[in-house]
Amino acid sequence: MATFTAPDGTQLAYHEAGEGDPLICLPGGPMQASVYLDDLGGLSAHRTLVRLDLRGTGDSAAPADQATYRCDRQVEDVEALRAHLGLERIDLLGHSAGGTLAVLYAARHPRRVGRLALLNPSPRVVGLDIADADRREVAELRRGEDWFPEAFAAFERIWAGQATATEWGAITPFSYGRWDAASRAAAARMPAQTNGDAAALYYSAGAIDPDAVRTAVADLPAPVLLVAGEYDVGLPPKRAAEFAALIPAAELVVAPGAGHFPWLDDPQWLVDTLAAFLTR
Predict the structure, then answer these.
(1) Confidence class for position 163, pLDDT limits 50, 70, 90
(2) In angstroms, rounded to a whole number, what is the distance separating the alpha carbons of residues 196 and 139?
(3) How far apart are CA 138 and CA 151, in angstroms?
(4) Which helix (H) or strand (E) holds 94?
(5) 105 is in which domain, residue-wise?
(6) Most buried of the four, 28, 53, 64, 168, by CB within 10 Å?
(7) What separation in angstroms does the CA of 78 have from each of 12, 47, 70, 217, 272?
């Protein structure tokens, strides 16, 4: 672990692993400690992964001003990390809600981005609404799974406006391409790794102007790879295609049989795909 100082004086931590040129990795959650990214299925064999613990998560300190948990306020934390590493430009990867932060960084500092990988990114940053029907279509693909009846019933209660913490917990298997021991363990660790108070502020009012973001990414010069999971109810592939179409420099790839965490579902596919994008 190493540390650097954010513009407001908050001490932030990052973790390096692997060989090769740095790839800054921004975790999702929102506001989950970066440890859950691990080495992204083995990508550390190709690049030095620089996992940033966002403020108030993992080994990073909590800020004095909780308003700085807002995602747009954290863009300059990423810029401070770039400067700390002494890099003119950075290759950047954002997963899920970390994709929001990555896109906001690219929109504000387009000339500082070499390549941008968006791994199952949240569509909120570009104002793309995912309808219940979109999620239902993807969820139906899992009908043959033994856990499906209970989880799908919970989804139907959510769609009917009857969501409780129990329902949200019951649909967890839909986030994974394989609901096996590794996925269950990863899901069980998530609450302890997440700063819930910070997560509640990440997308707070004023954090995102989707129209401005769309305008900015339309002129983004950096190559962009958007990875969607075939089974991801967070960003179904059809809607991921709409997201990618907003960025002329973007390429969409769909991970077969994968959910929201493709390095758990098919690590070799993900490593091969990301390594090829980052080196060509």
Answers:
(1) confident
(2) 27
(3) 13
(4) strand 90-95
(5) 2-127+194-279
(6) 28
(7) 10, 18, 13, 18, 26
Does residue 157 lie in a domain region? no
Beta bridge mates, 53: 13
Residue 114 CA: distances (Å) to CA of 38, 87, 105? 23, 11, 12
2-5 and 11-18 beta bridge pairing: antiparallel
Tokens representing 101 are: 């932060």
Q: Is residue 200 part of a domain?
A: yes
The answer to whether residue 214 sits within a structural domain is yes
Specify the number of domains making up the chain.
1
Name the residue with tokens 């692997």.
18
Instruction: Say how far apart CA 32 and CA 180 lie, in whole Å.
Output: 22
Please report whether residue 94 resides in a domain. Answer: yes
Are the beta carbons of 70 and 97 closer than 8 angstroms? no
For residue 204, pLDDT beyond 90: yes
Q: Which of 220, 227, 216 is nearest to 275 (CA)?
A: 227
Dihedral (Cα; 48, 53, 59, 62), 10-degree rounding: 160
Query: Do 255 and 262 form a contact (C-beta atoms < 8 A)?
Result: yes
Q: Which helix (H) or strand (E) holds 220?
A: none
Q: Kindly tell me the burial class for residue 227, based on how many C-beta atoms sit within 10 Å of its own C-beta (0-12, 13-18, 19 or more).
A: buried
CATH code, domain with 120: 3.40.50.1820
Nearest one of 271, 269, 274 to 256, comparing CA atoms:
269
